[in-house]
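Please predict the structure of the following assembly.
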Amino acid sequence: MDKIYRFGLIPLLVFVLIFPFSACSQKSSTQPTGQLEGTITISGAFALYPMMQRWAEEFQKSNPNVEFDISAGGAGKGMADAIAGAVDIGMVSRDVSAEEEAQGAYWVAVTKDAVFPTVNAQNPVLQFLLTNGIKKDVFIGIYITGEIKTWGQVASQPEITDEIHVYTRSDSCGAADVWAKYLDNKKQENLLGIGVSGDPGLLDAVLKDPLGIGYNNLNYAFDTTTGKAVAGTAVIPIDENENGQADPNEVIDNKAEAVDIVANGIYPSPPARLLNLVTKGKPSGLTQAFIQWILTDGQQYCAEAGYVALTQEQQEASLQKIR
Amino acid sequence: MQVRRPASSLGVRRRRERTARGSFFILAALPLFLAMAILLALLFRSWPILKTRPLWNLLTDKIWLPSQDQFGFYPFIAGTLWVTVVAMILAVPPCLLTAIYLVEYARPRLRAFMKPLLDLLAAIPSVVYGVWGMLTIVPLVQAIGPGVGKLLGFIPLFSSENPTGFSILAGSIVLAVMVAPFIIAVTYEVLHAVPDGYREASLAVGATKWQTVKYAVLPKTLTGITAGVVLGASRALGETMAVLMVVGNVPKVPSSIFDPAYPLPALIANNYGEMLSIPLYDAALLTAALILLVIVLAFNILSTLLLRRIAMRAKG
């Protein structure tokens, strides 16, 4: 018994106590041979999460000694974590404010996506919505002023009195921020509706409610395997030129078309927006190498992952910023 | 080889006793210091907003638009209280009856099977309760809302204007299930502790089982049951994740159980990340934390006083 205590238990205890820390001790070091190794921790926007996973995967192929720790929790969390130094990189799917920059947030744009309005597939006026689209003023009536209360009002068919069930995000996030910005430059706090947590949560609420309307990031609005809108929901075209109908180039049938109209600027911006990575101060070492790789080699993976690669100018500007 | 030391002298033993006593005291006082430290830290961080506007306005204003410099906490305080009160109304009666059944009526085998099962409910993580609430309770409330609204809508408490199901009622049902194991466990122990002599005496004079429970057992246990309910309510006041997922998160003062609400813990959890971009936002969120802490403290102090009075009256 004594022996176990002396020679078994104590080393075990020491091991258990030290083990969790040993993983962190070899952080972010660039070896002289140019071989990168270390761990990069990343948190933040749901919008960037799938893209970041893809980038990390590809980056690891050429740098097998680099570990990634990526979590999604909304742009607000990414920003707070990055400034607090809790992670190396924060994913932020909205503009970075001057106050945040004053606290040390250093940002570069890495790719582009958009937020799309979604409704349930059993919507009473679905056909109208798909062929005519919705104008910005109508969205404002639904989400900001609350003057438009029924689907009949949206479709100018007063005999339809089904109420609109408005859903929004409850957690502070880039999607809500950019959606509010599109609606007359408002803020997330101005959006009406029932608050649901997280991008998947909001989609789920719309999926369950035939009279629901919500908004989702490109990669949550479309199914990853079929490329169509997630089964049970429909993505509503925005009637940007206000001609009262959804023109062929405004209609969004699948993810590829969505990426296209965001890339060529037909889809309004906002709700299209640049997605940013935020570091505390100018990035260095491994973090810098990874961001630089994202801005160069990493751009080729954007399209297939459902994002829009940066234009030549944007790419130059971002590279300029981290060098 | 072991050398047996001579027994310590009286002086050494006394010194040891004093050290032990001192260190135990420090450990025992630590939680109190911790509570004070948290309170002070929150007060310090919320000071920027507390010094610029009167506390009364913060507590009673109804408009929450931080980017327009409007910080009214009233909807959140009301939301917290609504959700908690409705949850307790839903939870307490069934919990009491369950505990009474388990102690007084159930066969030992059933009891041995049921008790661990109920304790298991307490071990389920709150986010699981939240997901369950979203999947089943929200659609349920959505389904019954209009019917109840039509039937009882003349009472403002039951008028149904929010058709989505994300509501105080959904949050309260989830909360009621979450706090049930605590209330049941405490009540069970308290009932169990009543000496069998009371029951035997009551049965001996011809009382039925229910009469025995009602007149002999329950009066003895009022203090203990109240303590169990207080424990459950304290937990309900602070529960965050499960409520946040089903309660709707709309910063408006609710007037019906079918309205959405926005309790204080949800406000903090939803927005803590975003605190950096708007001046005073950080202070406002920490003020929310401070208000929540004060509510929970006040509730606990009041219920302790109440318990003491009940105990005194029971003795006197």
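The beta strands of chain B are 64-65, 70-71. Chain B has a mean pLDDT of 87.
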